């Protein structure tokens, strides 16, 4: 199975979500993480993790489309490949989108993030036309102000497109996300009882249900 964190816009939280999901989902299935981000944030975080004496995450940096294609072709139901795509449009990212069993697109409530979603919608439409099927991404509201409680307008915005479907889980602005990665840990390792950890656990549960991972 393939799960891709995808958005042509950078800085929306793809790497952070991939990092934390990989740790939680690995408790139920063999996980391999593909780092397509030009900043290689996951690989850097993993170096910090190893240098801190923690077990390495199964992360691979991909440098050629052929290697990515080979991994996708060898995809099985016994392993979950989590792809952290870069914040740009490229052949790498398009290959990942088309091959995915599930796509997650993080957005915040900021105007530029919402505008960027329209551009991403164009990419999904182009790929849908090529594949002759509707490619849909699960949108997660990420880095949302903790005081925000009403999401009707955001949900309506997302559901206005046939290419998007909102996830139930909401990830809010939490300093624990940055602090945990800075120490080479996931939020569930860093502060297991924190609100951030509970959000990630909720997201992992939702993803497992959608992908039938038990």
TrEMBL record:
Residues 6-187 form the CobQ/CobB/MinD/ParA nucleotide binding domain. It comes from Hydrogenimonas thermophila. This is Chromosome partitioning protein. PANTHER family: COBYRINIC ACID AC-DIAMIDE SYNTHASE (PTHR13696:SF99), P-LOOP CONTAINING NUCLEOSIDE TRIPHOSPHATE HYDROLASE (PTHR13696). InterPro entries: CobQ/CobB/MinD/ParA_Nub-bd_dom, DNA_Partitioning_ATPase, P-loop_NTPase. It comes from the Bacteria.
């Amino acid at each position: 199975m393939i799960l891709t964190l995808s958005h042509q816009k950078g800085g929306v939280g793809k790497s952070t979500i991939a990092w934390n999901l990989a740790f939680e989902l690995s408790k139920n299935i063999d996980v391999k993480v593909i780092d397509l981000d030009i900043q290689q944030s996951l690989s850097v975080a993993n170096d910090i993790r190893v240098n801190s004496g923690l077990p390495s995450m199964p992360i691979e940096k991909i440098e050629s489309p052929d290697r990515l294609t080979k991994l996708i072709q060898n995809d099985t139901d016994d392993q979950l490949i989590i792809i952290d795509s870069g914040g740009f449009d490229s052949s790498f990212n398009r290959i990942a989108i088309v091959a995915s069993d599930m796509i997650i697109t993080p957005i915040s409530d900021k105007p530029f993030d919402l505008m960027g979603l329209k551009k991403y919608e164009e990419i999904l439409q182009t790929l849908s036309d090529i594949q002759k099927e509707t490619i849909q991404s699960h949108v997660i509201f990420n880095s949302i102000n903790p005081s925000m409680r009403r999401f009707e307008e955001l949900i309506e915005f997302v559901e206005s497109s046939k290419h998007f479907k909102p996830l139930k889980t909401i990830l809010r602005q939490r300093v624990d996300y940055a602090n945990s990665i800075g120490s080479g840990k996931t939020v569930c390792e860093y502060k297991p009882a924190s609100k951030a950890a509970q959000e990630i656990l909720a997201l992992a549960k939702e993803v497992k249900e959608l992908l039938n991972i038990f």
